[in-house]
Amino acid sequence: MSNETRTTCPYCGVGCGVIASRDSDGVVSVRGDEAHPANFGRLCSKGSALGETLGLDQRLLHPRLDGDQVSWDEALEAAAGRLRRIIDAHGPESVALYVSGQMLTEDYYVANKLVKGYLGTANIDTNSRLCMSSAVVGHKRAFGADTVPGTYQDIELADLVVITGSNLAWCHPVVYQRLVAAKKQRPQMKIVVIDPRGTATCDVADLHLALKPGSDVALFNGLLRHLDTQGLAASDFVARHTNDANAALQVAADYPLERVAEICSLGIAELAAFYRLFAATEKTVTIFSQGVNQSSAGSDKVNSIINCHLLTGRIGRPGMGPFSITGQPNAMGGREVGGLANMLAAHMDLDNADHRRIVKDFWASPKIADTAGLKAVDLFEAIHAGQVKAVWIIATNPVVSLPDAERVREALAGCDLVMVSDVRAGTDTVQLADIVFPATAWAEK
């Protein structure tokens, strides 16, 4: 039997291929999988150290019930009984799940099915709400579905790569390494970094636009206006594949170069240089990440980027397109199976009666939620208010990761039933749980 296992790195959204090897003493080491299309053998410092995560130190190894170690049967019986009593007394809307972009797609799917198809509430949301909900809304506005129209190979094939709201060198180092290698092979490739800060990613940039924080919409609306006034609209593509182009262009008309430069606190010359470069380069990829998404105007930022690609038809072909790059390993997988409070599986809509019927019939479930559930921050406010009386938290630590962490701690401390599934015994959230389930980690999965 081989002592090697081909698997996937669990850290970020790049999904690097990993080969895990076990020696005769049981010690595991990892190396990059040279045959994997995401990383071709490259690993960042986190992926390279995966073998060091496999010890039992601080691992949660047994279920706990009210602070005591118990058997799985005891823990599951207690969980089922307490949930049943709360639902009977207060209805299914009094129960919620808070899950995670660290879960595998199959686990996400089962959790979503349990909550929406059997408990009958849509109160399931995820920590990826905090990072990706703006991209979800932007994609659905633009494409009708939450989908990314590009691959990593497009980045290497592009003649211009625009990176906005991302320190790619630190946050997605393997993708950054691929970009650097592509530029070395083709020095004529241009790279523009749009970021208020000068980051490590700027080291490879031909142009760095240190715009004023929050001014991205103006920047890309101005670009849209420039592309239109320069006659670069792909008229046939726009006519066949888009709606409401004139409405978008009317908005963009209010963003001439001088106004954009003022809004963004940029020099007119550097802004004009970016606009000319984008206009002149058909094979353009625009990478965007949390600096775009995590904003009060995040969805509008996403759409302002996508609109520039739609107007010019620079989408759906090699080496071009808007490219949302995510931080968590499976934020997209969770969205594929409907693991958000306002979605159904397979990108179907919770508020669509036909979609609900399709999913309910496929699940053969006794009921199905018909109204959107509570989203992440609202969910914990509802716990704090006593509206939600039972919550099951899986593979995430909201007492640390959610905004206003102390209020989240107060909410959980006052909740009738808190259940947590995790791999670590001592997280802040585990300490507040009535029932704790040990979970399997990366290597065991």
Record the strand order, biggest sheet: 5-4-15-14-13-6-7
Low-confidence stretches: none
Beta-strand percent range: 5-15%
Helix content: 40-55%
How many helices? The count is: 19
Gap from first CA to last CA: 19 Å
How much is the radius of gyration in Å?
24 Å
Number of strand segments: 15
Helix-and-strand structural type: alpha/beta
Q: Tell me, rounded to a whole number, the average pLDDT.
A: 94
Query: What global shape is seen?
Result: globular
Task: Briefly summarize what is shown.
By secondary structure, this protein is α/β, with parallel strands linked by helices. It is 42% helix and 15% strand. The protein has helices at residues 45-48, 72-90, 105-119, 128-143, 152-157, 168-171, 173-185, 216-229, 235-241, 245-252, 257-264, 268-280, 290-293, 298-312, 331-336, 353-363, 376-384, 398-401, 405-413, and strands at 4-8, 17-22, 28-32, 64-65, 68-69, 95-99, 124-126, 160-164, 190-194, 207-209, 284-288, 321-324, 390-394, 417-422, 435-438.
Describe the 3D structure.
The two termini are 19 Å apart. The strands form 3 sheets. A 7-stranded mixed beta sheet has the order 5-4-15-14-13-6-7, sandwiched between helices. Helix 4 runs parallel beside helix 14 and helix 8 runs antiparallel to helix 11 (257-264). The chain contains 19 helices and 15 strands. The chain is globular. It has 445 residues and is α/β, with parallel strands linked by helices.
